Amino acid sequence: MKLMPDRHVEVLEIEGMTCDHCVKSVREALAGVSNAVVRSVEIGRAEVDAGPEATREQLVAAVEGAGFDVVGGTSEAAPE
């Protein structure tokens, strides 16, 4: 998938998710971050296409605000 300029992909490894309700909560929390597009959310993992204004720290804070712990993941810069 080709990203828009200045965008990056954030993959978050998340603990505490056990059901579809958890998935919905995380998806809604991430969707509330300005300039972030949720690619996918499943139990234990979320992937977000984020613009420069949507930092990893903001995404982590959104997930933690929903009651879950981010325990790892990766950041990938958009291809040049």
From TrEMBL:
Pfam families: HMA
GO MF annotations in UniProt: metal ion binding
Residues in HMA domain copies: 8-71
Protein name in the entry: HMA domain-containing protein
Organism: Rubrivirga marina
Domain of life: Bacteria
SUPFAM superfamilies: HMA, heavy metal-associated domain
